[in-house]
Amino acid sequence: MTLLPQTEINHITTVYLQYLFEASSMADLNLSNYLWFLLLLFPLTFLLLLLYFIVRPRPVRIPIKNRHVFITGGSSGIGLALAHRAASEGARVSILARSVDKLEEAKHAIRLATGIDVSVFAADVRDCDAVWKSVEEAGPIDVLIVNQGVFVPQELEKQGLDEVRFMLDVNLMGSFNVIKAALPGMKKRGNREPASIALMSSQAGQVGIYGYTAYSASKFGLRGLAEALQQEVIADNIHVSLIFPPDTDTPGFEQENKVRPPLTSILAESSGAMKPDEVAKKAFNGIRSGSFIVPCNSEGHLLAIVTAGFSPQRSFLMAFVEVVAAGLLRVAALCFQWNWYGSIEKWHSQNK
Ligand SMILES: NC(=O)c1ccc[n+]([C@@H]2O[C@H](COP(=O)([O-])OP(=O)(O)OC[C@H]3O[C@@H](n4cnc5c(N)ncnc54)[C@H](OP(=O)(O)O)[C@@H]3O)[C@@H](O)[C@H]2O)c1
């Protein structure tokens, strides 16, 4: 047995103690990281679990195939794209609009593309009796898409009240007329599968924009209608969706673009209009999953989160995102307002 010299023993002891010290401080660090992680994870997990149990109404799937899909404003633009998509998904489709010629043209185009004949109904949504007659003739509806809409941008001071009334009558009162006519048949529908009432709003129905005073009022009105109606029809397994398209390349949009006030164009400037087909696809995905708010692009998703407010939410994961992102997105919204009011101020100072 050999004994180590004292200096060697001292050296080994020092190295060993150093090692122990470093290892314990590493462990301390790992442990404190771990504790912080747990501390953060616990409230988030609790929030997720809470939302999983409380979100209402519960998730639902609304079939489109072999259902009767009734689309107002189905002869042009987004409505026509919706009719195409519904027909190609195997639904029985009815479309309603004023112009018989445009309806026949749409019917012909859908037959050419899908081989399916849609039923057409010529009526003005402002005419209660004509709407009731059309809906009765069409038969019980499973998926009602209230899509008709008119938009004439103008500053309120310059816009005649007749034009204001026109937008409110077609976009808002017209929607009441259609829903009132369709609801009794929808409630009595033979199959008890989930049904849907979808309303075509607009991003101008989430945010007020210069020049859209009357249009925004009509589209914001749809939100109140939809939120309250969902509570009234849930017991009949009817699910309400509110669709929020951005600028979309349609005949209506083309007309609107010609008369937009310059400041509206500056503030509502977008990276480009969506295609009606893309909007129709997003709309049907939203309707199928019974989503209350249906955004159509990434900007729309952010808008949906920042304006979620008291609206129903079926997905606990989306509810989680809404809760966690609310504060930050509010800051982003305030930045937008700062930018918009800056542009308004600049425009007025240059155009005095
Ligand atoms: N395009 C966009 O940029 C955009 C963006 C956001 C939201 N939206 C909304 O999306 C919906 C469709 O817009 P769109 O761009 O597709 O419009 P569009 O191309 O002008 O088509 C409008 C449709 O509504 C019908 N319609 C208009 N007034 C009617 C009335 N009084 N009674 C019955 N039907 C009527 C039209 O047919 P008749 O003229 O023959 O009646 C047509 O079929 C509207 O609610 C609009 O507010 C559009």
Automatic annotation (TrEMBL):
Query: What keywords are assigned to this protein?
Result: Endoplasmic reticulum, Lipid metabolism, Membrane, NADP, Nucleotide-binding, Oxidoreductase, Sphingolipid metabolism, Transmembrane, Transmembrane helix
Primary subcellular site in the record, as a coarse category: endoplasmic reticulum
Q: Matching InterPro entries, A to Z?
A: KDSR-like, KR_dom, NAD(P)-bd_dom_sf, Sc_DH/Rdtase_CS, SDR_fam
Give this protein's Gene Ontology molecular function annotations: 3-dehydrosphinganine reductase activity; nucleotide binding
**Pathway listed:** Lipid metabolism; sphingolipid metabolism; Sphingolipid metabolism
> In the UniProt record, does the keyword Ligase occur?
no
- The Ketoreductase domain is annotated at 67-237
- What residue ranges are annotated as transmembrane? 34-55
UniProt cross-references to SUPFAM superfamilies, sorted A to Z:
NAD(P)-binding Rossmann-fold domains
Task: Give compartment(s).
Answer: Endoplasmic reticulum
Q: What's an example GO cellular component term for this entry?
A: endoplasmic reticulum membrane
The enzyme class is oxidoreductase
- Alphabetized Pfam families for the sequence: adh_short
Keyword hit for Coiled coil: no
- According to UniProt, the name of this protein is 3-dehydrosphinganine reductase
Question: What organism does this protein naturally occur in?
Answer: Ziziphus jujuba
